[in-house]
Amino acid sequence: MTQLHATEAHKIPDRPPIQLVPGQRVRAGQHDTQWPAFVFVTTDDGAGWVPEHYLDTSSDPAVVITGYNTTELATAAGDELTLIEQDDPSGWAWVRNAAGQQGWVPLRTVRPIPGQ
Length: 116
Hints:
The strands form three sheets. The protein has a five-stranded antiparallel β-sheet with strand order 11-10-9-1-12, with no helix packed on it. It has a five-stranded antiparallel β-sheet with strand order 5-4-3-7-6, with no helix packed on it. The protein is built from no helices and twelve strands. The protein is mostly beta strands. The protein folds into two domains: 3-12 and 75-112, SH3 type barrels; 19-69, SH3 type barrels. Helices cover 0% and strands 47% of the residues. The chain starts with a strand and ends with a strand. The mean pLDDT is 96.
């Protein structure tokens, strides 16, 4: 697995994460201005930002086509992380920290550790 080094801190949003499953219907709203690949979705259990390519937005409500967990991982500069999944279209990566916690971090906040 690829090892990453956090080059800057990432703070998590003050909103509980949601988990989407394929076939679930969600209300898709606005696109994020900072992260244009993301759309704000609302479910019966909460709300959060989801990459639009995980959704079929041709109907209303939208339908989840790929499961997605909105959990983000707080990091500090210097943290070492293990890359689990990289989602290039959205600009985010699912990682695990040394304590075993997992979540999404922006790709722009991490770099591969040389020689790993």
